[in-house]
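haha ok so turns out i had the wrong file open the whole time. this is the CORRECT one, sorry everyone. sequence first:
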Amino acid sequence: MAIRFAGIAFVMVDGAQEPLRGDLTISPNSLERTMIAGQDGIHGYQELPRVPYIECSLSTMPQVSVDALEQQVNVTVVAQLANGKQYSLQEATCKGGIEINARDGQMRVRWEGTRCNEMGF
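then structure:
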């Protein structure tokens, strides 16, 4: 039986759909663990907070404003994937440093938030 697990996706910011071009990356984890080794073996691990994010390429459509993206603070970014999963990034801000690729008509945008929840449809 064939199942759809990749392909069609959507990104919304505060309920408004963005023109998702591709390269959608979701990093939902809020913790990062690093194993610590001593000269005599493994001692354990270190656990530190990390910033969850959603990053993607948007088409440079007329309605997409870099200035408006840059002003996004305390927004909710939702990514819906072809496999039925949905990720909700809370209290997010647009990181900035947006680069526009004029040849391909796209820009890379990254939102970072306080937490990212995984949900099924």
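The first helix runs from residue 66 to 70.
again sry for the mixup
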